[in-house]
């Protein structure tokens, strides 16, 4: 095994790792990073957008209209 491959043996373990509740109490850098990222994503998801837009590839944002639905006449 080459020297480069010896140093990268654990990369599959790191790349395959996902958030787990125990990461909040973890002491290592990876657990701390996963817990922080999970908290940020959770906060952003729960907060939502005040003025949501669809980001266009060409740089022009498309506003999402906030309007209700029309009830059908009974």
Task: Describe what this molecule looks like in 3D.
A hairpin with a 7-residue loop joins strand 1 and strand 2 (62-63). Helix content is 39%, strand content 5%. With 74 residues, it is mostly helical. It has three helices and two strands; from the N terminus they run H-H-H-E-E. The protein has helices at residues 3-7, 11-15, 29-47; strands at 53-54, 62-63. The protein has a two-stranded antiparallel sheet with strand order 1-2.
Quick description:
39% of the residues lie in helices and 5% in strands. The chain has 74 residues and is mainly alpha-helical. The protein has one domain (3-63).
What's the helix count? 3
Largest sheet: 2 strands, antiparallel
Number of domains: 1
Percent of sequence in beta strands = 5-15%
Query: SSE order, as H and E?
Result: HHHEE
- Tell me roughly what share of residues is in helical segments: 25-40%
- Strand arrangement in the largest pleated sheet: 1-2
* Shape, per Cα inertia axes: elongated
Q: What is the β-strand count?
A: 2
Would you spell out the secondary-structure blueprint of this structure?
Elements: H1 3-7, H2 11-15, H3 29-47, E1 53-54, E2 62-63
Antiparallel strand pairs: 1-2
Which properties best describe this structure?
single chain, 74 residues, mainly alpha, two-stranded antiparallel sheet, 3 helices, 2 strands
């Amino acid at each position: 095994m080459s020297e480069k491959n010896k140093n990268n043996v654990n990369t599959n373990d790191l790349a395959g790792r996902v958030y787990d509740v125990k990461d909040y109490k973890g002491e290592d850098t990876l657990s701390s990073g996963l817990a922080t990222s999970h908290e940020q994503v959770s906060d952003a998801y729960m907060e939502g957008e005040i003025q949501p837009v669809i980001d266009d590839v060409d740089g022009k944002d498309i506003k999402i209209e906030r309007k209700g639905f029309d009830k059908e006449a009974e």
